[in-house]
TrEMBL record:
Residues 3-245 form the ABC transporter domain. SMART domains: AAA. One of its GO terms (molecular function) is ATP hydrolysis activity. Pfam families: ABC_tran. It is found in: Cell membrane. Forms a stable energy-coupling factor (ECF) transporter complex composed of 2 membrane-embedded substrate-binding proteins (S component), 2 ATP-binding proteins (A component) and 2 transmembrane proteins (T component). Its EC number is 7.-.-.-. Keywords: ATP-binding, Cell membrane, Membrane, Nucleotide-binding, Translocase, Transport. It comes from Clostridium polyendosporum. Belongs to the ABC transporter superfamily. Energy-coupling factor EcfA family. GO terms for cellular component: ATP-binding cassette (ABC) transporter complex. The keyword Lyase does not apply. ATP-binding (A) component of a common energy-coupling factor (ECF) ABC-transporter complex. This is Energy-coupling factor transporter ATP-binding protein EcfA2.
Length: 284
């Protein structure tokens, strides 16, 4: 299942004094099974882009083809798109509202018009996929949970619709380090074990370096860089020009190299840095 974004432009409040071109002729193809990170300064167009991918926003011009079906055409049902593309908003736990976790997760699949048996199956599967034990949690109120757990329930609600493509907008925002690690591990497992295509909007270059296979950088409504984390994080100057940075360990490696240490400046994760520094120490 692929997503092809062709010449996508989105203008908010067109022909008004508040007109804003949020996406400007964007052309991207996301292949099935990839783990893609979408990065960019606030206001660069990330949210606008991802809201087009599940039909929440309509383009001002351009097309979005999912499995070669143009979802921007009239007559395409939103429920059909959402069976394929799940979108987890920022702070999704604010949208939890049912009295039990089970009921909350049932909401999405029920809206797809599935029968009770299928809904039940999907709720159990979705809870397992996000690491919540069904019997322990099903009758609890979502509001009794920790921040990280609440967020997992919200993600399970989207996962229960069994999309092949899962888009997450800043899924670790506002969580403590333990909650962050848990959520990221779950997302990694959705990708690796269940082969979901993941599009992750993130401000954490460390998370991006650790998880993504491909990084797309947005600036002023355009995709300005697109490549593997190594390819993108090599472009330190370009990233800094658009208000972004490379992972902290990359700066460290570059500083060490500048001081004459024989260390690669293509170091993007703490693990890579650890190995490279140990090697330098051993050789000295
Ligand atoms: P990001 O997710 O990267 O922060 P957005 O897609 O939210 O970027 O915003 C892109 C641009 O569109 C920004 O200039 C923002 O102010 C503007 N924008 C976003 N949403 C709206 C809206 N509902 N109405 C008008 N302008 C908007």
């Amino acid at each position: 299942m692929s997503i092809k974004i062709e010449n996508l432009t989105h203008i908010y409040m067109p022909r008004s004094p508040f007109e804003k071109v949020a996406l400007d002729n964007v052309d991207i193809e996301f292949e099935s099974g990839q783990f893609i990170a979408l990065i960019g300064h606030t206001g660069s167009g990330k949210s606008t882009l991802i809201q087009h991918l599940n039909g929440l926003l309509k383009p001002s011009s351009g097309k979005i083809l999912i499995d070669d079906v143009d979802i921007t055409e009239k007559g395409v049902k939103l429920s059909d798109i959402r069976k394929k593309v799940g979108l987890v908003f920022q702070y999704p736990e604010y949208q939890l509202f049912e009295e039990t976790i089970e009921k909350d997760i049932q909401f999405g699949p029920r809206n797809l018009g599935l029968n009770e048996q299928e809904i039940d199956k999907r709720v159990k599967r979705a809870m397992a996929m996000v690491g919540l034990d069904y019997e322990t949690y099903k009758d609890k109120s979502p509001f009794e949970l920790s921040g990280g757990q609440k967020r997992r329930v919200a993600i399970a609600g989207v996962v229960a619709m069994e999309p092949r493509i899962l888009i997450l907008d800043e899924p670790t925002a506002g969580l403590d380090p333990k909650g962050r690690d848990e959520i990221l591990a779950q997302i990694k497992s959705l990708h690796q074990e269940y082969n979901m295509t993941i599009i992750l909007v993130s401000h954490s270059m460390e998370d991006v370096a650790k998880l993504a296979e491909r990084v797309v950088v947005m600036n002023r409504g355009k995709a300005i860089l697109d490549g593997t984390p190594s390819e993108v994080f090599k472009e330190v100057e370009t990233l800094e020009e658009v208000g972004l940075a490379v992972p902290q360990v990359t700066y460290l490696a570059r500083a060490l190299k500048k001081r004459g240490f024989a260390i690669s400046d293509e170091i993007f994760t703490v693990e890579q840095a650890r190995e490279a520094i140990l090697k330098v120490l051993k050789n000295n």
